Amino acid sequence: MANLMDYLDWRGDLTLAVSPFNEVDALILAELSFVDFDGIVPPPEIGRGLPLCEAAEAFFARHGGHDVDMGVLVPNQIPELLRRTAASPRFRDMKLNGFVDHLDTVKAEQFAALVAECGDGTVYLSFRGTDDTLAGWKEDFYLSCMREVPAQKMAVAYTEAMAHQYPRIKLRLGGHSKGGNLAVWAGVFCPTAVQRRIAAVWSNDGPGFHDDILSQPRHIRLAERIHTIVPKSSVVGMLLEHEEAYQVVRSTQIGLMQHDGFSWQVRGERFEHLP
Predict the structure, then answer these.
(1) CA 38 – CA 266 distance, rounded (Å)
(2) What is the tens place of the pLDDT at every residue in 118-142?
(3) Residue 246: what are its φ and ψ, rounded to 5°?
(4) Burial of 210 by CB count in 10 Å (0-12 exposed, 13-18 middle, 19+ buried)?
(5) Please, which pLDDT band fits residue 146 given cuts at 50, 70 and 90?
(6) Is 101 exposed, middle or buried (0-12, 13-18, 19+ CB in 10 A)?
(7) Measured between alpha carbons, how far is residue 151 from residues 154, 213, 221 in Å?
(8) CA–CA distance, 33 with 47 (Å, rounded to integer)
(9) Does residue 235 carry a pLDDT above 90?
(10) pLDDT for 59
């Protein structure tokens, strides 16, 4: 059995020039959006990107080299994931930029994202999923009854801003859980000129959308570039509607715990897919 950590140990020495960007890379970068890079990675349109290895060094130095508690719901393997990507030739030189972390407990708004300059002529926009904040969970509930939640609106604005900051460069969007929903929403509702530059969107066990969204021409134009990945016993990823095809992957957990991306099994350069 192999997971994200094993993938980094076994294939982390292969640069993107040797082995192109894949679905496992997309989940790894999605998980890194949960790291608090505030004061380390520049915010949008402020400064140049910081190499991932340097961002990781600054992050761990800020915590005195001690273990970092990610909370109850966010996987505690994420700091170790950061440590291994920082030591990996595949990821360590990727530049991180555009970090935002917005939280408004009164308005129930929670949004965070960052950009990774992949080094292969693309940038990856990583949208954070739900964290341990009550505001984030309240916003999740609003997904089922609101036309557009604040985080979705922010994701569109963020994508447009990053497209402006990185002109004429192909974009990849992705996230885990709510982050996957935000990635798809941003890809669908960003300006048409930006949407044309999107190479792929990854929704890793992210909730879907209402029927009226799926039937819009904007969604139809992007649907073939959306990659939806869910574990066998997906719960979160099966919420609402998905028009695009989805891939089922093997998890070592059971039931709702399969939502944990670190339990998804990896074989070579892809997840272990199931019928």
Answers:
(1) 31
(2) 999 999 999 998 755 444 445 555 5
(3) -130, 155
(4) middle
(5) low
(6) middle
(7) 5, 16, 23
(8) 18
(9) no
(10) 94
Task: Give the three-class secondary structure for 188.
Answer: helix
Alpha-carbon distance values, 244 to 54, 133, 146, 224 (Å): 38, 30, 22, 7
pTM of the model: 0.91
Q: How many CB atoms lie within 10 A of CB 149?
A: 25
Tokens found for residue 167: 């002109």
Bridge partners of 201, per DSSP, are 173, 226
Q: Which amino acid is at 22?
A: N
One-letter identity of residue 193 = A
Tell me which H or E stretch contains 1.
Answer: none
Beta strand residue intervals within the chain, DSSP E: 50-51, 95-104, 109-117, 122-127, 170-176, 198-204, 226-231, 246-249, 266-267, 270-271, 273-274
Q: Are the C-beta atoms of 79 and 264 separated by less than 8 Å?
A: no
Query: What residues contact 106, with CB distance under 8 A and at least 6 apart?
Result: none
- In Å, how far are 4, 90, 270, 274 from 205, measured between CA atoms? 16, 25, 16, 15
β-strand pairing of 198-204 with 246-249: unpaired
Q: For residue 48, with 0-12 CB atoms within 10 Å meaning exposed, 13-18 middle and 19 or more buried, which class applies?
A: exposed
Cα distances (Å, whole numbers) of residue 157 to 5, 100, 109, 270:
33, 12, 15, 31
Question: 25: exposed, middle or buried (C-beta count within 10 Å: 0-12, 13-18, 19+)?
Answer: buried
